[in-house]
Specification:
The chain is α/β, with parallel strands linked by helices. Helices cover about 25% and strands about 30% of the residues. InterPro entries: CoA-bd, NAD(P)-bd_dom_sf, Tscrpt_rep_Rex.
């Protein structure tokens, strides 16, 4: 669709809704580039249902369903470093093929999955 000049809509899930995750959820630059924040996911049960940038935070227990229901192909990881690899593995298992990693750790992914360290 890019060749036709159509705007691509890339659904994005942000995992880890602390200060950085919340700031990214509120960042307008994603939408202007065709990236739509479709889901916010956090491991803290107290965060579940809390609206951030107009989107209710959902619990990591539901990650697979959330990724599937929203057609997410891009995951943004803003978790503490100790949780990042497990989150990455779960995102990949759920079908995510591109990951933007803000956690201060190196992630290992299978062939065919693109990771960008920020």
């Amino acid at each position: 669709s890019r060749e036709l000049g159509l705007t691509q809509d890339w659904p994005v899930a942000i995992v880890g809704i602390g200060n950085l995750g919340a700031a990214l959820a509120n960042y307008g630059g994603f939408a202007s580039r065709g990236f739509r924040v479709a889901a916010l996911i956090d491991a803290d049960p107290a965060m579940a249902g809390t609206p951030v940038a107009g989107i209710a935070v959902q619990h990591t227990d539901d990650l697979d369903r959330i990724i599937s229901d929203n057609g997410v192909s891009i995951g943004v990881i803003t978790t503490p470093p100790g949780a990042a690899q497990q989150v990455c593995d779960r995102l990949v298992a759920a079908g995510v093929t591109s990951i933007l990693n803000f956690a201060p750790t190196v992630l290992s992914v299978p062939e065919g999955v693109d990771v960008r360290k920020v």
